[in-house]
Amino acid sequence: MKIGIDARLIEETGVGRYIQNLIRELGQIDKENTYVVFLRKNYQLPNNRWSTRIVDVPWHSISEQLEMPKILSQEKLDLVHIPYHNPPIFYNGKIVITIHDLTILHFDTGRATTLPYPIYRLKRLGYYTELAIGLRRAKKIITVSATTKQEIVNHFHIDPEIITVTPEAADVGISRGKRLVADEYILYVGNAYPHKNLDALFDAWPGKIVLATPDDYFSKRLAKRKNVFMFGEASKDELANLYTYAHALVFPSLMEGFGLPGIEAMAIGTPVICSDIQVFREMYGNAAVMFNPNDSNDIAKKIKEVLGNEKLRKDLIAKGKKQASKYSWRKMAEQTLKIYESSSRL
């Protein structure tokens, strides 16, 4: 079977980690199928047996919908995996699509964009249409949590039988290097979009907060606080260091598709304090202390509880390591390969 993987977002945060780990693990476990990986620029794949094709086509663009179907068809693929919610709706071949979250459906506000609001509304309609058509044409749909699976079923009325949950996993380890940030701190990892609810965290906590977040419009727009240290976008090694020396990871999001930073923190042995939302209850179980994300007083209370109670910290660390061990990139890739095989027969 000849399989294509659209990896144009391989160097982006979030979905890029998913693509990198998927490609690495598939290269180790699949010796039968051939692969073509589509990239926007040269990228050193871990597997030299795989073919690559450079296609400098922006995602979520008109050119994507016009050019990608032709490019994919030229390769005569048996199956294409689209690992993000940007399916080529005019492509007639078989596709598998991964949906990481449906945040865009829930946060339709001017704060979620750098565009003028009318243009944003038009672009959002394009996203929604693109996604709705892609989901209906996909042979199989992959998502990273049961919470997101149920949202897909509810919003798009998709048969749940064609949706498979393949959770993400941690791939960072304890850092033995010198700490990158002085003093005691709590940590946040991720982008600074409005649904991440960072202002509520800032209102709640006067102590040092380190943000490992891209230096972009959204992080620059955050309220300036003396106790907030903008680390910027962290490499894998830098992330390991930040997790290792943090007193806790705090995750105040209003919505997530999975919540990978929490699993990474747990794997390293850093306590997790997070929003009491469905997906975190699913993914973290009883291994995190949860708060009401709309109540800064409750956020402050839960942070104080964890930082001031050594017995609780040790309990969270032990439970967190056990919880993180349930998730594996190898298992995710094995599940994905089975999905490829079953999709090719449809």
From TrEMBL:
InterPro entries: Glyco_trans_1 (IPR001296), Glyco_trans_4-like_N (IPR028098). GO terms for biological process: lipopolysaccharide biosynthetic process. It comes from the Bacteria. Residues 183-323 form the Glycosyl transferase family domain. GO terms for molecular function: glycosyltransferase activity. Transmembrane segments: none annotated. SUPFAM superfamilies: UDP-Glycosyltransferase/glycogen phosphorylase (SSF53756). Keywords: Transferase. The keyword Transmembrane helix does not apply. The keyword Transferase applies. This is Glycosyl transferase family 1 domain-containing protein. It comes from Candidatus Gottesmanbacteria bacterium RIFCSPLOWO2_01_FULL_43_11b.
